[in-house]
Amino acid sequence: MDERKTPYHHGDLRSALLEAAEEVLAETGVSGFSLRQVARRVGVSHAAPAHHFGDAKGLLAALAAEGFRRFLAAMEARAALAGDDPRERLIGSGLGYLDFAQGSPALFRLMFSAPMEGAKSAELADAGTAAFRHLAEGIARLRGEDPGPAADPLLYGVWSLVHGFAELLISGRMPPVQAMSATEREGFLRGILRDVVT
Amino acid sequence: MDERKTPYHHGDLRSALLEAAEEVLAETGVSGFSLRQVARRVGVSHAAPAHHFGDAKGLLAALAAEGFRRFLAAMEARAALAGDDPRERLIGSGLGYLDFAQGSPALFRLMFSAPMEGAKSAELADAGTAAFRHLAEGIARLRGEDPGPAADPLLYGVWSLVHGFAELLISGRMPPVQAMSATEREGFLRGILRDVVT
DNA sequence: AGGATTATCTTGACATCGTCAGGATTGCGC
DNA sequence: GCGCAATCCTGACGATGTCAAGATAATCCT
Fold first, then answer.
1. pLDDT tens digits, one per residue of B108-121
2. Most C-beta atoms within 10 A of its C-beta, which of A22, A123, A150, B75?
3. Which residues 130 to 169 of B reach strand D, CB within 7 A?
4. How far apart are CA B79 and CA B90, in angstroms?
């Protein structure tokens, strides 16, 4: 930690901006998000972010990309905890999906909304694809090695289910579920998922 | 249609603003949405909307409320088309859900996102609850008259499934599904739903 | 080692936005 | 026909995103 007063060169502005951006996003939501506020929080001029991210959408795209990486990590962590059974592993991925959505609702929404389209960020596209691939592989493992090029109803079914559950939960549209404890809520989603994952 | 030049009193500004707001929302998305642009499109001063909706969030809340009413209508229309079998009716509601999301993606996202929270609009709350009740009643009819006060896994399961499917589709995250024809896509969702709606 | 080039950050300006205060215009009740 | 309330406009303020131009630091090159 270099604690000099106000060095002209920040040293690691990019990371600092991303960190601050996530805070601002979590506090104010996407609507209240402001580039200048992020710059202010880091203690830097209002035009400084432009050099690293070009655009406001560029910052959001980079933030979303990092979100997808942590998102994938959350799913992998839960899947690893579940052991070796493909079915349990897949359910674990779903629980990791929910973990992330609950832990970083604003970031989750940013990732699946599109206020940063037109950013043509390869980083974002890659991170998103990687997260999706994790689910696809989980399904493939479940039905015994066969990715299947066509639209897989099982894959898109469980994905839609888990994603919708996460969205509705963090939107506050399932009050009874929101009132549950974390473990109850987990069991609830588990129960729903078991019916689908044959 | 009163076609006088620029009457000081518009006559039906509120409806006109809502209509223009929906156009702007569809064209620019929530991020590019602007009160002044809506006012400009209607040919009215930039402060005119304030009197009818108070706030920018107020306009969005009113727009979301009308969205929920059309949303409910879309589900009811499909359910009615499906006849009397509770199972088919419920699946119909799901297809109506998808119809609306595909037809008005930006509005759909607005309704389930929260850029207008703090608007404490009773109109919005009521319209949202009414749409939800339609689904709950569909489930109750399916299992033979019994609303059930507790968290119903079947209810939240099909809701999550359909909602997630709609979200992922309009977010462009299911390219193979997006490439389908409308009828193919409908059959695809039908197939997924049938597994869940026992 | 030292000058030049490049990367990084700042300053200032501009158009646009949401919101508020105050004024103008119209419709309506009496 | 008169006053009142509803409706709409004008003007202003602070905040925002973006761009151009300048300042400062790091690095590279010989």
1. 999 999 777 777 88
2. B75
3. none
4. 7
